[in-house]
Specification:
The strands form three sheets. A five-stranded mixed beta sheet has the order 2-4-5-7-6. Helix 14 links the parallel strand 8 and strand 9 (493-497). The protein has 18 helices and twelve strands. The protein has helices spanning 6-25, 28-50, 54-71, 84-102, 105-109, 115-136, 140-161, 164-250, 257-285, 297-314, 332-348, 406-417, 442-457, 477-489, 500-513, 532-540, 558-567, 578-591, and strands at 293-296, 318-321, 327-330, 354-362, 365-372, 421-426, 430-438, 469-473, 493-497, 519-523, 549-553, 571-573.
Length: 592
């Protein structure tokens, strides 16, 4: 239903009326019993003074009306909202009946010309109207039905006497009746408006909740889609990378090696794009834990300058990365990635001029500023630049400008590290990003310097040797063949199997031959939904022997990445570069 839908207005009106009916009926029973007791007490007092027999008939009639009101079926919270109009009319009729019976009593009392009894009667009727008006504000029909017959009976009985005193009392009673009704109508309007506002706010909150839920579902679906697509792309790319590395190794020192090198550059470029999406999933999964420490910015700026200098020169841009001598507290790897993405983004959108990276001392904080003279960002786009895949002025999705994830990663790293990022931009004049970091005091700098010197004095240790025998568990034939070819080209005895049963048979045979495997390499997602992590952990502890386990996966789903992290099993993400794979295999096998 839309806000202007007549059916929505009807439903809203029913809800408001139901609240009004519930408010009136909330005091239904106690009010009726109280009124019956009051009729008996008041009637007895009046009768004892006036000795008017007709008062007894009036008391009997009013008590009968109260008994009817008390025992007749009444509204309760289980009644549907569509019946609210019926119950509103019913209670209005009942209070009008009681009031009409009560309207007779002034004609029984006033003609006796007993001023004390007349004053008592007026006080009782005025008080009853005031009390009823407050409880009957929600229903105007009930408010008028109760106050008018009783008050009009008193006003006419006073005016009928004709003398000045009674006429004055009649006029005063009429004025009081008008004021009571005016106040009651005003209170009814305020109560109705507050209920309308409340229900409209509830409807808006419900619609907002639905929109938030829909957005969350869309985000979850997007994450699942990206995770599935990324995994399905990584699988064949991983095989291509392994075949390409083996081919490049075989063609070394031959003319055909240039084509193999070009192939591997293309594969590595595609792998870098997939790794960028993986970074988003890893950050969302919380598997990246920062390790804050004192960081010398000049030591961080130097490799950044080397990384982007050639690219800036190629675009004929000036790149200025200025030394500062400042230290900050941060995770050096994550901060490097954060600044790298900002510099990469600045160079992409700058055609003339250049990019400047500076660090400024601001007391307890240090500002790292990345300024460019590029196209700038319009105010209406400034809130979207941190969204995934959003790119300014790139409707054709030019691949040279990346995927549009860099600033999204910057925002996630900003939250993870606690380094706020500020952005100022003028269209056509350039953009200025500022990262605010905590400064490091002199004592922390000295400690970090001494630790760095100690590390520098430590003798260099060579990389552990590659494992001699490796058991590979992967359900895809192409990857088994590619991995086997790559490892054998590096003199590694590789035995590849497709499932856990074949892996157990290989372990059993290796044990009987006295040639155990030095390393187990297992894919995370196996055939028929088998969990490679659980399978690998079982195989690594087969029959009490401990075989080092290295997990390889193309998964990017945050919950699965978190599970891998909690297992503390070393993991590589597809596609795996040959050098990285060999280094990891040597380290994991050597750790035993």
């Amino acid at each position: 239903m839309t806000p202007n839908d007549p059916s929505a207005d009807a439903v809203l009106g029913q809800r408001v009326l139901r609240e009004h009916v519930a408010s009136v009926y909330s005091t239904y029973g106690i009010s009726t019993l109280t009124h019956m007791a009051f009729v008996v007490v008041f009637g007895s007092i009046i009768y004892s003074q006036l000795k008017e027999p007709s008062l007894l008939f009036w008391m009997a009639g009013l008590l009968m009306a109260d008994i009817y009101v008390f025992f007749t079926p009444r509204w309760n919270p289980s009644r549907p909202a569509r019946e609210s109009a019926y119950w509103a009319r019913k209670i209005s009729r009942m209070v009008t009946l009681v009031s009409m019976v009560s309207a007779v009593v002034p004609w029984l009392i006033v003609p006796h010309d007993n001023l004390p009894m007349t004053s008592l009667l007026m006080a009782v009727i005025v008080g009853s109207c005031a009390r009823a008006a407050q409880s009957l504000w929600p229903l105007k029909a009930a408010l008028f039905g109760y106050t008018m017959p009783m008050s009009l009976g008193m006003i006419t009985a006073l005016a009928w006497q004709g003398d000045g005193l009674h006429l004055f009392l009649a006029v005063a009673s009429a004025a009081y009746l008008l004021l009571t009704l005016h106040a009651g109508v005003g209170q009814h309007r305020l109560l109705t408006e507050s209920l309308l506002l409340r229900f409209e706010n509830e409807a808006l909150a419900a619609r907002l909740g639905e929109q938030i839920a829909a957005t969350e579902r869309a985000s979850e679906e997007k994450t699942r889609f990206l995770g599935t697509a990324s995994h399905d792309l990584r699988q064949p790319l991983h095989a291509i990378a392994l075949f390409g590395a083996a081919l490049e190794n075989e063609l070394r020192d031959r003319p055909e090696s240039r084509n193999a090198e070009r192939l591997m550059r293309a594969v590595n470029a595609l792998g870098a794009s997939l790794d960028t999406m993986l970074d988003v999933s890893r950050l969302d999964a919380g598997v990246i834990t920062p390790a804050p420490q004192p960081v010398q910015l000049d030591a961080l700026f130097l490799p950044l300058n080397h990384t982007f200098a050639a690219r800036a020169e190629q675009k004929q841009l000036q790149l200025r990365v200025r030394a500062s001598g400042l230290w900050v507290r941060s995770d050096p790897q994550l901060l490097h990635r954060m600044l790298s993405n900002l510099m990469d983004n600045a160079l992409k959108y700058t055609a003339r001029g250049g990019v400047t990276v500076t660090a400024r001392d601001r007391g307890d904080a240090v500002w790292i500023e990345v300024r460019d003279s590029g196209i700038g960002i319009a105010p209406e786009q400034s809130s979207r630049i941190f969204e995934e895949f959003y790119q300014i002025d790139n409707p054709g999705r030019d691949r040279s400008r990346g995927l549009g994830i860099g600033l999204s990663i910057v925002q996630r790293l900003s939250r993870l590290l606690g380094h706020p990022v500020q952005m100022h931009s003028r269209p056509g004049r350039g953009t200025h990003f500022r990262v605010v970091l905590p400064a490091v005091d002199v004592q922390a700098r000295r400690l970090a310097g001494s630790l760095s010197q100690t590390a520098a004095d430590t003798p260099w240790r060579r990389r552990p040797a590659l494992p001699g025998r490796v058991l590979l568990l992967d359900d895809e034939l192409e990857i088994r063949e590619a991995m086997t070819g790559l490892l054998r080209s590096h003199a590694i005895d590789a035995h590849a199997v497709a499932d856990e049963a074949a892996a157990v048979a290989a372990l059993r045979q290796a044990g009987s031959e006295g040639r155990p495997f030095d390393l187990l390499v297992c894919d995370y997602r196996l055939a028929d939904g088998a969990d490679g992590l659980d399978t690998g952990l079982r195989l690594s502890q087969w029959r009490g022997t401990t075989t080092p386990l290295l997990l390889i996966t193309g998964e990017t789903a945050p919950e699965r990445l978190q599970r891998v992290r909690e297992s503390k099993v070393p993991v590589l993400f597809k596609p795996v570069v040959a050098d990285v794979l060999l280094q990891a295999m040597a380290e994991v096998a050597g750790a035993r």
